[in-house]
Design brief:
A hairpin with a 2-residue loop joins β1 and β2. The protein has 291 residues and is of the alpha+beta class. It has a single domain, classed as Clavaminate synthase-like (Double-stranded beta-helix, 4-Layer Sandwich), CATH 3.60.130.10. The longest helix is centred in the C-terminal third of the chain and has 15 residues. The strands form 5 sheets. An 8-stranded mixed β-sheet has the order 1-2-3-4-17-9-19-5, with helices on one face. It is 18% helix and 29% strand.
């Protein structure tokens, strides 16, 4: 079966799976228009089924982005307030964060401006991590800056039983300092936040288990010798990041991506620092601690 061409209709939507384990494109919807309840339910279910969904060819205002975010729950607060605004935007609405390398007076106007970023889960270092993230592309470089998404479900289901059994029921410490995109950069500095969560997380909506540690932010497994913790975590990272579990998105202007932060991790490839990249990000509040 060719997943790239298989389509099925739900409430007049075409939902096109992109890989076996993760990713689908939803066609036939203009998010500037408010969809009916059946369509919203169909989108929500497609998101649960595929972990990551792409709405191509959108032309969204900030208000449109905020409204679309609300289909999936309560909009999350910014992790930090923006200081600078990009050219062409008179204001940034509450709840929207800029991800950008564009500089004004030598300072980036947005967060996470440059280069590669290792696999991570958004806000895993918080007491209640984000449920979902939406990212909308306004300006993109000619190459690079792709986003990779890894299925935590597939990784958990196929993990070596000896490793899975050793980590089942364990918790891990997660640490993050903003500006860090590669492990080791600022990992030894004071954290923006630290928090402990299960190594394997049970999804509130689906009941499925997913690997819930990542190479960028996870520090150690609690109540385990440091060398054993490091060995097991590296084995899990390597397994989670296998290409067979990953969808790589090559951005186009007007793409809106939504991912399930509870059962997927994501990373960013490098891109030319001389070329502009501007994305608008919103999040959906988590519904509780992932226990």
């Amino acid at each position: 079966m060719d997943l790239a061409v298989e389509t099925r209709s739900k409430s007049k939507l075409d939902i096109v799976p992109l890989t076996k384990h993760i990713g689908a494109e939803i066609r036939g919807i203009d998010l500037r228009e408010k969809p009916d309840e059946d369509t919203v339910r169909a989108i929500y279910q497609a998101w649960l089924d595929h972990l990551v969904v792409i709405f191509p060819g959108q032309d969204l205002s900030q208000e449109d982005l905020i409204r679309a975010t609300g289909f999936f729950g309560e909009i999350g607060a910014l992790s930090r307030p923006p200081k600078y605004f990009p050219k062409g935007f008179s204001k940034i609405l509450p709840g929207i964060m800029m991800i950008s390398n564009i500089r004004e007076n030598g300072e980036p106007i947005g967060a996470l401006p440059d280069g590669e970023m290792m696999f991570h889960h958004d806000m895993i270092h918080a007491e209640v991590p984000s449920k979902a993230t939406l990212l909308y592309s306004v300006e993109i470089p000619s190459a690079g800056g792709n986003t990779l998404f890894a299925s935590g479900y597939a990784a958990y289901d196929t993990l070596d039983p000896a490793i899975r059994n050793r980590l089942e029921g364990k918790k891990a410490l997660h640490h993050y300092n903003y500006g860090t995109t590669i492990r080791g950069g600022q990992m030894g500095t004071e954290a923006f936040a630290e928090c402990v969560h299960p190594v394997f997380r049970t999804h509130e909506d689906t009941g499925r288990k997913a690997a819930y540690v990542n190479r960028l932010m996870t520090v150690k497994v609690l109540d385990m010798p440091e060398d054993e913790s490091e060995h097991l975590l590296n084995a899990v990272y390597d397994h989670c990041e296998k290409r067979e579990f990953v969808y790589e998105h090559v951005w186009r202007v007007g793409d809106l991506l939504l991912w399930d932060n509870r059962c997927s991790s994501h990373a960013r490839t490098d891109f030319p620092s001389t070329e502009r990249r501007l994305m608008l990000r919103t999040t959906v509040k988590g519904v509780g601690r992932p226990y």
